[in-house]
Amino acid sequence: MTSIIQSEIRTKWAEELELELKDNILGFWLKHSFDEQCGGFLGQVNRDLTIVADAPKSLVLNTRLLWTFSYAYRMYGDASYLSAAERAFDYLNKHFADRANGGYYWMLHADGSPLEGKKQIYGQAFAVYAYSEYFRATKNLQALDYAIQAYRLIEQYGYDPVYGGYIEALSEAWEETDDLSLSDKDLNEKKSMNTHLHVLEAYTNLYRVWQSVELQAQLTSLVRLTIQHIVDEHTGHFKLFFDEAWQSQSQHISYGHDIEGSWLLVEAAEVLGDAALLEETKKVALKMADAVLTRGYDTDGGLFNEALGDTIIDDHKDWWPQAEAVVGFYNAYQLTGKETYLEASLRSWRFIQHAIVDQTYGEWYWSVKRDGSPSDNMQKISAWKCPYHNSRACFELLERLQLADVQQD
User: Fold this and answer.
1) Are residues 277 and 220 in contact, defined by beta-carbon separation less than 8 angstroms?
2) What are the residue ranges in the chain where pLDDT is below 70?
3) Among 66, 225, 243, 387, whose CB has the most other CB atoms within 10 angstroms?
4) pLDDT for residue 408
5) Where does residue 362 fall: left (phi above 0), alpha (psi -120 to 50 degrees), or beta otherwise?
6) The pairing of beta strand 119-120 with beta strand 114-116
7) What is the DSSP string of 352-371?
8) Domains within the chain, CATH numbers bracketed
């Protein structure tokens, strides 16, 4: 593939990404997600745009909305994106913030009153991630202060000084709890890959705007811990669940998390500016990308959900692994120049276009089956169905393609 053809591909690809981002993803959420009765954003909207009025509101959804529209405003300067980000910012501070104990409630009733007060470290990390991005977009010093406060609460209560890393959850008052699992799909274990991955991305974003010595040390430690304990050095896959001493408690493989983690690790090392650490993470990232490409990548360009050893146990293709595949494989292409990765990224994008995008009602299906038909999950907006993975894939690729154009020139 010549550089001229690559330039033409980049131009067309960028046009497709921007159209999808602005018209379908961000446009959908601006039109269909606002809760005009109770404020903030709706807790659930189904595939056919039916509103579930009494659906609870999750910290995950609302922090991801704050992150998404903050990033969109920073990228495009569109007033409608700023208005949506301000809506999320205000609602988080008015309803999700726990004034008595600090931190943020995990779940609210539809009317905005507390429903589940436990302090899931995953959720607190997304507060750090979102507030950091809002500060990047608006320079609102209060947002930076909120991000730093959330970071310090994670460190004070969630950090394990004995074995390193972070426990899954604490009670509403930041005390030990037996209710650790992130969702009904997760094991009730002390530590998980998923929580550590999103603490990693949150701390990376905070370090962009607050380069404290303590944060630098914790982020560096977290990158090394991920490589040492969470990435399986033999297979290149993430281990998913652990006891407090980092003994693995599961043999399952999550292809979406593998490919997502491959580029987030590199991003963290780049932001830290540690050359030796960056070289180490690049090697790990490529091993992870290769493992996904070899075992989790279907012939149609879609990514399977899960495996157990060498056996695919969930051949559905959820929306978010497809988004992460586009970024992860393109990241591997940037690291190596190997066109195999570029082709995989492009094929993942094509799969999204023809199978994942909902051409009737907008946005993306939750999932499709192996045959390409939509899965039984009807949620278009929910506690976990958010615009973060798909908008981020578009943001990332647009910026990376633009950088490629500059380097080509």
Assistant:
1) yes
2) 1-5, 405-409
3) 66
4) 60
5) left
6) unpaired
7) IIIIIB-TTTSSB-SEE-TT
8) 3-408 (1.50.10.10)
